[in-house]
Write a structure and sequence with these properties.
Elements (H helix, E strand, L loop, with lengths): L2 H17 L4 H7 L17 H5 L21 E6 L8 H6 L2 E10 L3 E2 L3 H10 L3 E7 L7 H13 L11 E3 L14 H19 L4 E5 H8 L11 E4 L17 E5 L7 E5 L3 H9 L23 H12 L12 H14 L9 H7 L10 H12 L12 H13 L10 H7 L2
Parallel strand pairs: 1-2, 2-4, 4-5, 5-6, 6-7, 7-8
Antiparallel strand pairs: 1-9, 2-3, 8-9
Helix pairs in contact: 6-7, 10-13
């Protein structure tokens, strides 16, 4: 069974439990002694929530994107018990330089494959680290950091151990943000980071997605002051980045590929990786203009909604439902033909730049609706009415400030690029 199917099955069990009116812990207890802990920790891995949100059978945007735009070319992987025992010499021979291994989840699960994966990767010459899958609704951040350190997540300055990673992402057992408010989530992450630093002398690298971070922390800039960033995104580019970070250390750019598990790229050189293993490291900034997502049929979400509104601004008559189906693809192809672009139905940087139009206070129409919907998706709720009034301008200014853009309230190419990602 592949990971996507396993995740779908286990998520289905959780939904059934929820439909029966049982809270998580009660549902686990009702299932018997074997369900004292969460049901599918082995299937909870970095990006499992991201993969589960992709439509079945969809081709990942990265498959049609240009070569990854990263400053470094060091390849790596992250794995969990789902991959079982791994042939690490083979992984090393295929060019992997580093690996992260799942150690713990919550405060009562340790991976049965951790020792083989953690020691095996080091024996094969990879620089490796451990990661913790966070469950913020089961215990505090400090308690989970302590559990992580006590069960393989520590750090030592030996040149082959990377700082621990906090995997904070979509809840595999219920509400996306684990029932926490945005401020409470930021406090939880801060508590984990602070305790991990107290115990090890290093700040953990934080793994997340732009969408989850915006939804569940309000795009908070607080953790980014100290914690390195591990960004997940399968759209051909690691940017735009979540609030608080001007660069990233690791990019998870696919959930399958050359190596077992998820595929990662380190933002730096071999010497930089060793620097990161020994202590703080400042990665180079992302290359300019690398933030346009690549969106194709099968995609869903606010980027697709923006495409539909922008196509309508150019004369189409689509329903902006966030579902990139055949009708949206046909409209994209027609638009591309009219603009002399490659008519492949895939919205990449060239098509985005042809679709967008600068809008500001006083404007109205579908392009303004695209702005308003994207602002709401990034945690700046406004009414999607197509009227660029003072409230929309204030939200644009706040968004621009959070992204380090010129806060002029005008939605031009740079702001569009950040909004649709």
């Amino acid at each position: 069974m592949n990971r996507s199917l396993a995740t779908a099955v286990t998520l289905g069990l959780t939904v059934l439990a929820a439909s029966a009116g049982l809270p998580h812990d009660a549902a686990r207890a009702a299932a018997g002694p074997a369900a004292v802990r969460p049901w599918h920790e082995d299937a909870d891995h970095m990006g499992s929530g991201l993969t589960a949100r992709m439509p079945a059978g969809a081709v990942h945007d990265s498959a049609s994107a240009a070569a990854p735009q990263v400053a470094g070319t060091l390849k790596g992987l992250d794995v969990s018990a789902f991959q079982a025992n791994i042939d690490w010499p083979s992984v090393a021979s295929k060019g992997a330089s580093f690996a992260y291994v799942k150690a713990t989840e919550g405060v009562n699960y340790t991976s049965s494959r951790f020792t083989q994966q953690y020691t095996g990767s080091a024996a094969a010459g990879l620089v490796r680290g451990a990661y913790h899958f966070a469950l913020p609704d089961t215990a505090g951040g400090s308690a989970q950091a302590d559990y992580f350190v006590a069960h393989g997540g520590g750090w030592s300055d030996d040149g082959k151990t990377l700082p621990g990673a906090l995997d904070i992402e979509y809840n595999p057992y219920g509400a996306t943000c684990y029932g926490l408010s945005q401020s409470a989530m930021v406090s939880w992450i801060t508590a984990f980071s602070t305790e991990y630093h107290t115990r090890t002398g290093r700040y953990p690298i934080v793994y997340s997605t732009r969408d989850w971070w915006s939804t569940c922390t309000g795009d908070s800039a607080v953790p980014g002051r100290l914690d390195p960033l591990w960004i997940a995104g399968y759209g051909g580019s690691p940017t735009p980045l979540p609030g608080g970070w001007s660069t990233y250390t690791i990019w998870q750019n696919a959930d399958s590929g050359t190596f077992p598990g998820d595929q990662d790229v380190f933002n730096g050189t071999t010497a930089d990786l060793k620097t990161f293993a020994h202590g703080p490291y400042t990665p180079p900034p992302p290359p300019p203009g690398s933030g346009w997502p690549v969106v194709s049929q099968g995609a869903t979400g606010h980027s697709t909604t923006a495409i539909q509104y922008l196509l309508d601004a150019h004369g189409s008559t689509l329903t902006a439902d966030g579902d990139f189906g055949p009708a949206t693809r046909s409209a994209v192809v027609a638009f591309q033909k009219g603009k002399g672009l490659t008519a492949d139905g895939i919205v990449g940087p060239s098509t985005w730049q042809a679709l967008i139009t600068t809008v500001e206070e006083g404007d109205s129409g579908p392009a303004v609706k695209a702005v308003q919907d994207a602002l709401a998706a990034h945690g700046h709720p406004v009414t999607v009415d197509g009227d660029f009034g003072p409230a929309t301008r204030s939200a644009v200014v706040a968004f621009q400030k959070g992204k380090g853009l010129a806060a002029d309230g005008i939605v031009g190419p740079n702001t569009w690029e950040a909004l649709v990602s």
